[in-house]
Design goal:
The structure holds two protein chains of two kinds. Chain A is an all-beta fold. Helix content of chain A is 0%, strand content 53%. In chain A, strands 2, 4, 5, 6, 9, 10 and 11 form a seven-stranded mixed β-sheet that branches. The N and C termini of chain A lie far apart (39 Å). The relative contact order of chain A is 0.31. Chain B is 0% helix and 56% strand. Chain B contains no helices and ten strands. In chain B, strands 2, 4, 5, 6, 8, 9 and 10 form a seven-stranded mixed β-sheet that branches. The chains are: A mainly beta, B mainly beta.
Chain lengths: 121, 109
C-alpha cells in the first residue's frame, strides 16, 4: 500500500526558502501514470494546488506561484521535494504531498498527513 | 481559471438524513475530471468520488455523485456520525490544472 510522508522545517523566516520532502513508500515514484503533487491549505481555508512532477522529471506549476517554485525528484530515495522561495506570512499553511492518478481522471487518491509550515521571524 | 462554487457553506443535518451538496463551475467541466473529497479536522482530504460518479476504493455506497457541465452534486444518503466533515469538489484540466471549491461543512444539527 502506497504511503506518502512529508518532512521539513515547521518554521521558516520571511524571505527565506521553504524546503519540504515527500517520501513515497510501498511503491515506486518512477511508475508512470501518476502526477506527484504538492498542495497547501491555509489555516481554516480551502485547498490550493502548488505543482506537480512526473516520473520523467516534467513539472508544471500553479501560475500564481511559478516564479518561486521548484519541484524535483530523487528516484534513488523515492522522494520528491518542494522549494518555495521568498516566503512571506501568506505562505503559512499546511503542506500536503499527494498522488494524482491517471485512471481516476487525475484525482488525488493518496495524500500525506500534511505538515504545518509557519513563516515568522 | 475555472472557479468552483460550493453551496451551501454549511449544512446542518441529523444522522440518518440525506445531504445534498452542490458544486457549480464557472465554465463547463468534463465529468471525467470532477472529483469530491472529504476532510475531517486535522486530517488530509480523502478521495470519495472521481469522474463525477465513480466511488473510490472503500467508499460506502451511501455516497454518490451526479451532474454534468457546470452543475455537480454529491449526495450522502442516511448520514452516519463519521460523515460529518468538510467536503470539497475539485476539477482538473483548466489552468492552474487543479482547482478546488471552497468547501461545504456538514455539521450535526
Amino acid at each position: 500500500q502506497v504511503q506518502l510522508q512529508e518532512s521539513g522545517p515547521g518554521l521558516v523566516k520571511p524571505s527565506q526558502t521553504l524546503s519540504l520532502i515527500c517520501t513515497v513508500s510501498g511503491g515506486s515514484i518512477s511508475s508512470g501514470g501518476y502526477y506527484w503533487s504538492w498542495i497547501r491549505q491555509h489555516p481554516g481555508k480551502g485547498l490550493e494546488w502548488i505543482g506537480y512532477i512526473y516520473y520523467s522529471g516534467d513539472t508544471y506549476y500553479n501560475p500564481s506561484l511559478t516564479s518561486r517554485i521548484l519541484i524535483s525528484l530523487d528516484t534513488s530515495k523515492n522522494q520528491f521535494s518542494l522549494k518555495l522561495s521568498s516566503v512571506s506570512a501568506a505562505d503559512t499553511a499546511v503542506y500536503y504531498c499527494a498522488r494524482g492518478r491517471l485512471d481516476t481522471g487525475w484525482a488525488f487518491d493518496i495524500w500525506g498527513q500534511g505538515t504545518m509550515v509557519t513563516v515568522s521571524s | 481559471e475555472i472557479v468552483l462554487t460550493q453551496s451551501p457553506g454549511t449544512l446542518s443535518l441529523s444522522p440518518g438524513e440525506r445531504a445534498t451538496l452542490s458544486c457549480r463551475a464557472s465554465q463547463s467541466v468534463s465529468s471525467t475530471y470532477l472529483v469530491w473529497y472529504q476532510q475531517k479536522p486535522g486530517q488530509a482530504p480523502r478521495l470519495l468520488i472521481y469522474g463525477a460518479f465513480g466511488r473510490a476504493t472503500g467508499i460506502p455506497d451511501r455516497f454518490s455523485g451526479s451532474g454534468s457541465g457546470t452543475d455537480f452534486t454529491l449526495t450522502i444518503n442516511r448520514l452516519e456520525p463519521e460523515d460529518f466533515a468538510v467536503y470539497y469538489c475539485q476539477q482538473y484540466g483548466s489552468s492552474p490544472l487543479w482547482t478546488f471549491g471552497q468547501g461545504t461543512k456538514v455539521e450535526i444539527k
